[in-house]
Design a protein that fits this description.
With 429 residues, the protein is an alpha/beta fold. It contains 13 helices and 18 strands. It has 2 domains: 338 residues, Glycosidases (TIM Barrel), CATH 3.20.20; 77 residues, Immunoglobulin-like, CATH 2.60.40.1180. 29% of the residues lie in helices and 20% in strands. The strands form 4 sheets. The protein has an 8-stranded parallel beta barrel. Strands 11-12-13-18-15-16 form a 6-stranded antiparallel β-sheet. Helix 8 packs antiparallel against helix 9. The two termini are 39 Å apart.
Length: 429
């Protein structure tokens, strides 16, 4: 099957993804109450709102009081706890009017145990040796596995996805556990979805073949885990540099890798970003925002949320003014403006800068069409010194966080406080 597009949809080229956990976002968890946050999200600057599953949640074998978002009882409606389809349709229109885009979580691998398909189309499911419905893995006892060897399952799921495109005018999908489903299905789905409107497709997977015609972006877990490892004192800049050589230069030119230091799974099960990254949080945020991928913010990060949001219960985000809002806002703005930082094939090449430091300072440049961004990070809890050495470094730059003009030259000397970060920008338009 031919590719529908060689590179990701153009409107995504310089945007940041913001993951919305509607249940925990407000007191009511409703679509209507969420609307009140739209001006703040517009001010933050995020461009793509990814809504975690909005569908009704199964009741049979439900986990906890409210259940898993990923146990889908009905693919064609909104959980009444959130609102209804008309309210979501109006929300999408308001988001579009603010210049932002919408993708929704799509759970194609499995359904809840009480999805009506278990009665109307039992042949859609995989069976155990006794001929009974089965879960994909034993731990997922609240869901049943769909059988993608059946063409009828493909047809049903593509039609359901097209329903949301045509009925609500969303702009794409984040596809849960995409790697568990045959690539053939995703290729067919992408072709039909693009026939409705050009969509943005994000796969919960890290295998690069997903980008060959099916998805615009996959996850990058290696960078995430390396950041955590450095924060724990188990890895150094040497490990990061070696890993980035593979992750950046070995990555296909036809897609994005989504970069993050938190998401709904990591927050709930492995801790908040502050819990994991400690004093290095800001430096690691600068890192993942200025590499070659498309960045993600999980709701609450901009408010300095420090708690693990419960997965099966109500656990509202504590919204407050926090310094992280300004940091995210500035990084989002820089990424939008400076072409060197655009994502994947739209952005500048990555070049490591030699620092002549003993392994605690990371420095690199991204450059495109005369635009340059130089990033220097002290990824340690001790003061560090660095001498920047790279061929095309010399020139006058804007010190991004102070606004002062700085002349950079070969062997430029820097003193960096623990976990400090610097960005120098040359903007050519």
């Amino acid at each position: 099957m031919p590719k529908t597009r060689d590179i990701p949809v153009e409107w995504s080229k310089n945007l940041t993804i913001y993951e919305v956990n509607l249940r925990q976002f407000t007191d009511s968890g409703s679509i209507k109450e969420f609307e009140g946050h739209l001006p703040r999200l517009k001010e933050l600057g995020v461009g793509i709102l990814w809504f975690m599953p909005l569908h009704p949640i199964g009741e049979v074998n439900r986990k906890g009081e409210l259940g898993s978002y990923y146990s889908v009882k009905d693919y064609f409606s909104v959980d009444p706890i959130y609102g209804n389809l008309n309210e979501f349709r109006r929300l999408v229109a308001k988001i579009h009017n603010l210049g932002m885009y919408v993708i929704i979580d799509w759970v194609a691998n499995h359904t809840s145990c009480d999805n009506s398909l278990t009665v109307t189309n039992p042949e859609f499911y995989t069976l155990d040796k006794e001929g009974r419905f089965r879960s994909p893995i034993p731990e997922w006892s609240d869901v049943l596995d769909l059988d993608y060897s059946k063409p009828e399952v493909h047809r049903f799921m593509i039609d359901a996805m097209k329903f949301w495109l045509t009925e609500t005018d969303i702009d794409g999908f984040r596809c849960d556990m995409a790697k568990l489903i045959p690539l053939e299905f995703w290729l067919s789905a992408r072709k039909e979805l693009d026939g409705v409107k050009p969509v943005f497709m994000l796969a919960e997977a890290d295998n690069h073949e997903m980008l060959n015609g099916a998805f615009d972006s996959v996850y990058n877990w290696n960078i995430y885990h390396t950041m955590n490892s450095i924060a724990r004192g188990e890895s150094s800049v040497w490990n990061l540099t070696s890993m980035l050589n593979n992750e950046i230069f070995g990555f296909p030119a036809n897609g994005y890798q989504m970069l993050f230091n938190s998401n709904h799974d990591e927050n709930a099960w492995n801790g908040s970003e502050l819990e994991r990254l400690h004093f290095g949080l800001e430096a690691f945020t600068v890192l993942y925002f200025t590499l070659t991928g498309i960045p993600l913010i999980y709701n609450g990060q901009e408010a300095g949320n420090q708690k693990r949001l419960k997965f099966f219960e109500k656990d509202q985000i504590e919204w407050k003014v926090d310094k992280m809002f300004a940091l995210y806002q500035s990084l989002i703005s820089l990424k939008k403006r400076n072409r060197a930082l655009w994502s994947g094939p739209y952005g500048g090449v990555f070049r490591r800068i030699e620092t002549k430091n003993g392994g605690n300072v990371m420095a690199y440049m991204r450059e495109l069409a005369g635009n340059k961004v130089v990033v220097v990070l002290n990824l340690s809890g001790q003061e560090q010194f660095a001498h920047l050495s790279v061929d095309n470094l010399p020139g006058y730059y804007n010190d991004f966080f102070t606004g002062k003009q700085v002349e950079l030259y070969d062997n430029f000397y820097l003193s960096l406080e623990p976990w400090a970060y610097r960005i120098f920008e040359f903007y050519a338009g």
